[in-house]
Amino acid sequence: MSDAKARIAVLGASGYTGSELVRLLLRHPRVEIVALTADRKAGQSMADVFPQFAPFPLPKLGTIDEVDFTAVDVVFCALPHATTQLVIKKVFDAAPNVKVVDLSADFRLSDPGAYEEWYGHPHQALDLQKEAAYGIAEIYRDEIRKARLVANPGCHSSTAILPIVPLLEAGALDPETIVVDSKTGMSGAGRSAKEAMLFSEVSEGIHAYAVSGHRHMGELDQEFSKAAGRPVKPMFVPVLSPMNRGIYATIYVRTTGATAEDLHRILTDFYKGAAFVHVLPFGQVPQSRHVRGSNMVFLGVVADRVPGRAIIISTLDNLVKGASGSAVQNMNLVMGFPETEGLEQIALMP
Amino acid sequence: MSDAKARIAVLGASGYTGSELVRLLLRHPRVEIVALTADRKAGQSMADVFPQFAPFPLPKLGTIDEVDFTAVDVVFCALPHATTQLVIKKVFDAAPNVKVVDLSADFRLSDPGAYEEWYGHPHQALDLQKEAAYGIAEIYRDEIRKARLVANPGCHSSTAILPIVPLLEAGALDPETIVVDSKTGMSGAGRSAKEAMLFSEVSEGIHAYAVSGHRHMGELDQEFSKAAGRPVKPMFVPVLSPMNRGIYATIYVRTTGATAEDLHRILTDFYKGAAFVHVLPFGQVPQSRHVRGSNMVFLGVVADRVPGRAIIISTLDNLVKGASGSAVQNMNLVMGFPETEGLEQIALMP
Amino acid sequence: MSDAKARIAVLGASGYTGSELVRLLLRHPRVEIVALTADRKAGQSMADVFPQFAPFPLPKLGTIDEVDFTAVDVVFCALPHATTQLVIKKVFDAAPNVKVVDLSADFRLSDPGAYEEWYGHPHQALDLQKEAAYGIAEIYRDEIRKARLVANPGCHSSTAILPIVPLLEAGALDPETIVVDSKTGMSGAGRSAKEAMLFSEVSEGIHAYAVSGHRHMGELDQEFSKAAGRPVKPMFVPVLSPMNRGIYATIYVRTTGATAEDLHRILTDFYKGAAFVHVLPFGQVPQSRHVRGSNMVFLGVVADRVPGRAIIISTLDNLVKGASGSAVQNMNLVMGFPETEGLEQIALMP
Amino acid sequence: MSDAKARIAVLGASGYTGSELVRLLLRHPRVEIVALTADRKAGQSMADVFPQFAPFPLPKLGTIDEVDFTAVDVVFCALPHATTQLVIKKVFDAAPNVKVVDLSADFRLSDPGAYEEWYGHPHQALDLQKEAAYGIAEIYRDEIRKARLVANPGCHSSTAILPIVPLLEAGALDPETIVVDSKTGMSGAGRSAKEAMLFSEVSEGIHAYAVSGHRHMGELDQEFSKAAGRPVKPMFVPVLSPMNRGIYATIYVRTTGATAEDLHRILTDFYKGAAFVHVLPFGQVPQSRHVRGSNMVFLGVVADRVPGRAIIISTLDNLVKGASGSAVQNMNLVMGFPETEGLEQIALMP
């Protein structure tokens, strides 16, 4: 690496994952934000849209068309799905050597059929889909290092994949009976003005959503099946909890003979040396607030009262490790920076 | 019934279930509160302890010893478990004809061995345990009508039992694979000053607790096993969500051949005419806020993407239908009052 | 009154004040809801819009044009300001004997000039404006009893007027130095889908709004000036606190010689016998949660450390006593029902 | 400065200001935490008490007696008031050259009489009280640089002093009519297990506290009087808002002739170049969430509708700029580090 800072463009900077990227990148020692876009808010300053940035110098919000991608090293793409694939195609057409970390769902499913099933239309950039690396650094570190395009995973997906994939790979779980109950805070739904997202519709209550099928299921199926070596379709329900940040999955598993302690040992071994995954002592239960604002994942393993059953708990901050933090982590890998650079903030609690 | 109002004593009025009883009973047309106790706060007025009652005339808080139970028709007992059984024994010794609705756990488990296993000591009032009716009116209405002592169920227990018992009785579910993920608000933990219950330890985050074994499991085992006709031990994890009121259980089931629509039909039939249980149209998902402050239970049934699997959702207000509301409902049955009397408040939302 | 129930129409039933009216009226023994309107949601059931009403029989949502006002006794109007005056004009044209309780701002300001100043356009129903009674029952009970049209006051307005008007009338306060800092919950802003009202923009933080001029100021000016006998323009800032319900005003006053105890005595005397205003013992501080869900106002008076200064605290639930509860109270007066009918719910806490 | 890191002891690390110090210091490039104390939790690890620190190496919690202060460069003291003065005396007896930043109230009031009045007992370390610098860096930077002992101010105090002192110094305000309505989040009350601090007693409501006199008033009196050149006793009420972090003061002022724009200009000039104080454009209103987790203060100035009156709004995070962040800022001054070192985190929003 030369001493020059990497030049960053953030496409879609007016949503929460966009602002979270800016929060992290502004304090990252090896990068410089050179372009921010937000089509509907083009012309405004970032401080107009997110007053917390008022004290800091940042480029104005512009349109995607205004960005000169040949003068950019890394593009973070925080745009809605479907439009994303077209935008990224254009970006690579204009600047084939740029690196792209995509926070949308567009390149997460490697099977075009699965994409079509979950997203309701054929993929429009199949070549790119083929080359995209699935951005869970702890599992696909080598692929990501070599990738030009990284598909940052869904927040529910990362939360469940991180503990379950190593256990399936080890053959320790019955893949037929996995149940993932995944609680999430509100910020994961973004910043669009919808009645169902109003304070009075979210606070002081809780409810499941997308019960008959949430798109992150497609990622669980893909990664669980790959790890198990055969098709796996877990039960999965996302639940909206009245809080801003945090995914908290309680995962119910049955083993193929292993004890809960065995599961704990497998995870402890797998994540030895992983900077951002912390496995709690056996039997301890994590809380989402202990990772809030940080790039950490906390994992807990507890024995059920019936031998051969166990509860695995996984929690992360959906805006950090579940989105923008892992995107920065992926950029670090892609760019050859130290993996933890710019991501060392400790959780804010309370 | 004569025109005279039933005279009520509330033992343990300084906790949240106690104050909720007072809130409901003050507006019940057929009762009169004649005694309130709270040993550690004896001598104070209810308004000192719960300022919302300041405008209303109420007896002072006293000790249990000061209550003349022969001048009381119904005793609500909202005391800690274990001491409760001794107190109720004394109450019946002094006044054998009084009716008791007990909100503690002391008389919920009919098997003395199960009681000892879950509560860690032998039961001290086995005779009373034998005669207690388990207070889920929708299932045990006839037993409750004849009972002198009603054991009001746990809040997690009611939430899961109401939808699952009819399905097990119908033989529609595989009893081996039931998973109950039961989210709760904070008020269920009562009003004791504990660090883990502080605002800053509960808000803006979520976490499971008692993962290796929660006492309400004993009730699930008892009622599920009775309904299934063989021993059932569901997986069950309670999760604390940052809100005051509400239990919200997402229940993962596999059927013995029935479709999800069949499950919905069984529940709709079972609860036809039940004033406090509302089964949503097939596929709809309830929210806890829509029952907050009311005595209602909302049930939803959604098909899983894999045939033979379904998600059942059950929600109620832990302080009302999960505790004090069902206690009043049980009193109505025991006293021959209309079952819905004093319980017709509509949910407060927002 | 005959035994027949009063027939009620609620115009604008799909907002929070509308649903709160329905919550209260469904349990009011002397009324029957015969029409509900919500122009943009016409054709839907109330349960589609507010699932908490699913268990209860209610008319479908329709348009205003579909209502036969000659078959209605009381109209509650919960529509946006400005359109309201035109709607009510039409209602009276069609049915001159109907009673109208208007929850909008359209008829609150008796001076057409003040209306124009605060609302930015000339009033379009000046005759009706003249006959409207200002709906604070505790102050204008007699006018309301005789009125055909009641202008229900703003929520911030009621909160500050109830304690301050009696003190100004008694000549006890310096009218030049009144400061009203009025905290409110989110539900007062209604149910429209705006970015600033999203959970993530409201929770875990606090902020003032409309600092340079909030329309409820017009009501404070009008009522304070009338009470003081000369023009009064208090300082007033509304502040959005992360909660659903509650207005909580801390009011800073200087006296004309009276002590804080004197102020307390004036208020205690003034509200002797008022069912819905509770003056706490001198020096005690109310909390908004102790009136949540009820029609109560709690008032506190505390001496400042400097003689001649005092802090007055007033709190109510913005959706009940601040809107729909006082609207029902006004209907009770207008219809000759007991003033407290249908309004006796005790606060829900927690 | 040599290259060696400054060795830090944190006394009282088991409270929220203690954990916030650890959060900041762990990421401060010029310091190393060598001792953490918490008398009642001595022997535990920091991760036992605050699980968010589990991934990081930290000394075990010990007792104060176990600390060798001669091997320490800076002591942060986050202990209860009154005991603090005795502890710090001992620290300086053992190690006269150590630097102490005290987060308690013990050394904030320079007048022993005022201390006795507000804290109810004579001060026990008058010599130290004399030498202590009052730790608002933006006002007392030079004194702090030279100090051995810095008295970190109260959170309400900093919030009001930062905007008001420059205006009083400029002679722009009538000192007789200042009203400070200061909303605070819960974390300012610390982590003690008290009933009034439970989630269910704090969420979904708001209330004033210490209305008849809060100790931070003593600091306002001291600093306002010094700035005005004559005794000033503002009206001040703290209000608990249901959120974790943030102080939000709405301050009502009358000028001595200046316009609101003049006030804005004075503040803009005063804070030119201040890294942590951001004055918003005239008329704009800050929100507490935009400084959450950061060391920033946001100030807003809005004209009242009556000339000669204005509303000043000041907000900061009570745990950062209101406590541990300003403590680190003071340490930076005392140690000759760059003032912003370790404090450059951007607000976490949402």
Short structural summary:
By secondary structure, chain A is α/β, with parallel strands linked by helices. Chain A has helices at 16-26, 46-49, 83-94, 112-119, 126-131, 137-146, 155-169, 199-202, 216-228, 260-270, 320-335, and strands at 6-11, 31-37, 61-62, 74-77, 99-102, 133-134, 149-151, 179-184, 207-208, 235-240, 247-254, 277-279, 297-303, 309-316.
Structure description:
- The structure is a homotetramer of 350-residue chains.
- The first copy, chain A, is α/β, with parallel strands linked by helices.
- Chain A has two domains: 6-131, 3-Layer(aba) Sandwich (Rossmann fold), CATH 3.40.50.720; 156-318, Dihydrodipicolinate Reductase, domain 2 (2-Layer Sandwich).
- Chain A is built from eleven helices and 14 strands.
- The first copy, chain A, has helices at residues 16-26, 46-49, 83-94, 112-119, 126-131, 137-146, 155-169, 199-202, 216-228, 260-270, 320-335, and strands spanning 6-11, 31-37, 61-62, 74-77, 99-102, 133-134, 149-151, 179-184, 207-208, 235-240, 247-254, 277-279, 297-303, 309-316.
- In chain A, strands 3-2-1-4-5-7-6 form a seven-stranded parallel β-sheet, covered by helices on one side. Chain A has a seven-stranded mixed β-sheet with strand order 9-10-8-11-14-13-12.
- In chain A, helix 1 links the parallel strand 1 and strand 2 (31-37).
- In chain A, helix 1 (16-26) crosses helix 11 and helix 6 (137-146) runs parallel beside helix 11.
- The radius of gyration of chain A is 20 Å and the shape is globular.
- The mean pLDDT of chain A is 97.
- The interface between A and B is large, with 49 and 49 residues.
